[in-house]
Amino acid sequence: MYVCLCKGVSDKEIRRSVESGARSWREVQRETRCGTQCGKCACMGKDITREAIKEE
Ligand code: FES
């Protein structure tokens, strides 16, 4: 499922970013570019990041 339409980032890509070492929403943003344009996806992106970190 796409989380970020502006940058074409899926929830899988966010999870992959956490798996490969991202430890905060900011790091996920830096790596995937999710939420760096209009910002509408930021809430969902943050939630998925938080969940993925918890599951690590
Ligand atoms: Fe993610 Fe616009 S939908 S920055």
TrEMBL record:
**Keywords of this entry:** 2Fe-2S, Electron transport, Iron, Iron-sulfur, Metal-binding, Transport
Required co-factors: [2Fe-2S] cluster
Show where the BFD-like [2Fe-2S]-binding domain sits: 2-47
Q: Which domain of life is it from?
A: Bacteria
Is Cell membrane a UniProt keyword of this protein?
Answer: no
What residue range is the signal peptide?
none
State the Gene Ontology terms under molecular function: 2 iron, 2 sulfur cluster binding; metal ion binding
Coiled coil: which residue ranges? none
Has keyword Lipoprotein?
no
Q: Which protein family is named in the record?
A: Belongs to the Bfd family.
Record-given protein name:
Bacterioferritin-associated ferredoxin
